[in-house]
Amino acid sequence: MAGSYDLIVIGAGPAGLAASWRAAQRGMKVALLERADHVGGLAASFDVVGVRVDQGSHRLDPHAPPELLTDLRGLLGDDLQQRRRSSRIRVGDEWLSLPFRADEVSRRLPASLLARVARDSALSAFRRAESDTYAGVVRSRVGSALYDAVYGPLAEKFWGMSGENISAEHARRHTARLGTWRVAARALTRGRRGRADVGGYYYPRTGFGELVETLSSAATDSGVDIRTEAEVDRVRVTEDEVEVTTQDGDAITGGLVFSTLPLPVLARIARPAPSLTSIESSARLRYRAMILVYVVHRGGRWTRHDSHDIPDPRTPVARISEPVNYRDNPDDPTDRTVLCAEIPCSMTDEVWGLDDESLADLVDETLGLTGLPGVDRMHVETRRIGQVYPIYRAGYERDFSDVDTWARMIRRVVTLGRQGLFVLDNIDQALLMAYDAVDAIRDDGRFDRYAWTVARERFHRSTDPPV
């Protein structure tokens, strides 16, 4: 690959694909570079013994802006299905529906926990204001009972540390989810037995990867030059252009670069290089890894639920999903199904080195501990992903601000996406971020930093990631 482009996009995840497609629709000459052998990043799907599976649990928010949903419906047609959520979470020794149902909680939770929840709700007006840690913020909003039963254990699973060591910024970004529990707690206190909104989502008929595959096809049809297995090893900025080189020795130039690379990676390969202080700060921005264990169950559907969240500290498994329950696809086999177990971890953890069968045994143990049905295992395979969740340790803001300030000052380079902005975003938020970035490109090719800053601030306020 050689030549000159108006825009070079690094990374073919949802943000990179959407940005490439939108820019090409505006008549720009666009190149998209992806180090993997496929597009989609963590949103890609693949086959396990004839069943289409995702890399974890993915949904598209039905409350996404109409412009985005209109575009996706135009691309996917009837394959973009609106589905009713059927998720559950383990609280104590009981499984509860998500979204939360006050009547269900009143029937199933132990009286001692219900009493603590009701007490926390009654005293909510007297609780101290938010503190500077995740634990402090969540306790101030939902009380100690729900923090100890749900939020605290999940925080330790996903981020590998106590909530006391996690930044309050993370808690402030999922106010809506905290609010679900607060509403239910008030309903319990007042003796109501109403049911909350059952919730819903959009999901493609053949797996979530159909969304990114369709975006890729649309980008190609619009003229985007997509190249996979093209790992970028240098981004060199000059007065008039940016030169991007890959490990294969290819070099292309462009007037503007959109980078979805992790900020520490960009700091390492950018020229001119950042200051030593920024390099040290970038090294402290770290990510949580994930093991995905795919267990094939013989005999048809395992349960009727799409996912099961597991705060239980006795197992490292945080969630088990059943991909075929996210969709209505007549082509899915009826004699088998696949369970996807998510295990957040560090690459230095003992679980990272377990073989596939040992990980499947760990899933079996989790099913037994949590009262879920057993599986008739006919196959298992795994995927290990090194960088999934940004770790929002207390004080990370200083390091991020240092690196982000450096990145904002690089002429002709814009960072976006989960990795590029060190955010735990949802798919629809990543797509919207791409839309905003392309909208900030002026007709003369210059990038409107003011418009992008306003968009970033709006995105920061609206981000609502999962616990």
Oligomer category: single chain
Number of strands: 19
Distance between the termini: 42 Å
Strand content: 15-25%
Biggest beta sheet summary? 8 strands, mixed
Instruction: Kindly name the structural category.
Output: alpha/beta
| Average pLDDT number | 90
Number of helices: 16
Q: Quick one: overall form?
A: globular
Helix content percent band:
25-40%
The residue ranges in which pLDDT falls below 50 over 5 or more consecutive positions are 190-196
- If you compute it from the alpha carbons, what radius of gyration comes out, rounded to the nearest whole angstrom? 23 Å
Structure description:
The structure is a single chain. The chain has 467 residues and is an alpha/beta fold. It is 37% helix and 24% strand. The chain is built from 16 helices and 19 strands. The strands form four sheets. Strands 1, 2, 9, 10, 11, 12, 13 and 19 form an eight-stranded mixed beta sheet that branches. Helix 5 (134-142) runs antiparallel to helix 6 (144-159) and helix 11 packs across helix 13. The chain is globular. The two termini are 42 Å apart. The model is unreliable at 190-196 (pLDDT under 50).
Topology:
Blueprint: E1 2-10, H1 14-25, E2 30-33, E3 45-48, E4 51-54, H2 66-76, E5 80-84, E6 87-91, E7 94-98, H3 102-108, H4 111-122, H5 134-142, H6 144-159, H7 168-172, H8 175-189, E8 200-204, H9 209-221, E9 225-227, E10 232-237, E11 242-246, E12 251-259, H10 263-269, E13 270-271, H11 276-283, E14 287-298, E15 307-309, E16 319-321, E17 336-345, H12 356-370, E18 377-390, H13 396-408, E19 413-415, H14 417-421, H15 427-439, H16 449-462
Parallel strand pairs: 1-2, 1-12, 2-9, 6-15, 10-13, 12-19
Antiparallel strand pairs: 3-4, 5-8, 6-7, 10-11, 11-12, 14-17, 14-18, 15-16, 16-17
Helix pairs in contact: 1-9, 1-15, 3-8, 4-8, 5-6, 10-11, 11-13, 15-16
